[in-house]
Amino acid sequence: MTTSTHRCALSVNVNKVALLRNTRHLGIPGVVKAAQICLTAGVQGITVHPRPDARHIRSNDVSDLAALLKNWPQAEYNIEGNPTQNLMDFIREFRPHQATFVPDSEEQFTSNVGWNLPADMDRLRPLIAECKALGVRVSLFMDPNPAAMPFVAELGADRIELYTETYANAYGTDTEEQVLAGFTATAQAALGLGLAINAGHDLNRNNLTRFLRAVPGVQEVSIGHAFIADALELGYTQTVGEYLQCIQDAYD
Ligand SMILES: CC(=O)[C@@H](O)[C@H](O)COP(=O)(O)O
Ligand SMILES: NCC(=O)COP(=O)(O)O
């Protein structure tokens, strides 16, 4: 989903608001409050990753944000997770605009790898079909690898989410161009197969514009860790403006 103002949608991941909230029994900082301020400031979506250990986003957060987003029909709800663990229960109950399948193990520190295709295809196929039958778009979290794109298309997924940590690590170094080329080739392969492109993980105000200028057709970036870190310094509203400007700068 993109607006006329920004060709690429910004979906704020509020995992880290929940992480801070969970360190006391006071209910602050509020996850719904954060989402509401970001939506008011112009973000086009909210993302959550309710991990099985509930280290940050909990079931009631998923429910509360679903209720909030009913008041924001132009915005999208993206729920991430491993569909062989707890994700599908959330998809069945809340039917978000998008489910992002991520192959994380339960205790994993953070997401650090995309799906292994074709090896994972048999277990993903029925889960993708179920999401589609529920009217939920499916995005597969993928490493930059053009050769894997035909398998994504064969599975009937709608989008890939390019896992961008390797780009973030290369940004500003002498390997940046080479690493970006892999993302560009993967995006071109995906687009050629009718897949749409999302991107996320370790994107920030410094590396976002360069990525969007180099990689064609990115429709949504989901950004959490760096965004919330910036918001601690600048506030949510100013941070939204800064990230939307980074996106706009990519297309000017
Ligand atoms: C899939 C991905 O790269 C991130 O969206 C992920 O949700 C990060 O999870 P943590 O916020 O638990 O690090
Ligand atoms: N899918 C990426 C996401 O939602 C947030 O990742 P990060 O910005 O917290 O690394």
UniProtKB/TrEMBL annotation:
| UniProt site positions, description: Transition state stabilizer | 161
Q: Could you identify this protein by its name?
A: Pyridoxine 5'-phosphate synthase
Among InterPro entries, the record links this protein to:
Aldolase_TIM, PyrdxlP_synth_PdxJ, Pyridoxine-5'_phos_synth
Q: Which family does it belong to?
A: Belongs to the PNP synthase family.
Give the GO terms filed under biological process for this record. pyridoxine biosynthetic process
Q: Give a GO cellular-component term.
A: cytosol
List the gene name.
Answer: pdxJ
Q: What is its EC number?
A: 2.6.99.2
Q: Which residues form a coiled coil?
A: none
| Gene3D superfamilies reported in the protein's UniProt record | Aldolase class I
- Tell me the keywords, alphabetical order: Cytoplasm, Pyridoxine biosynthesis, Transferase
Binding positions (1-deoxy-D-xylulose 5-phosphate): 51, 56, 110
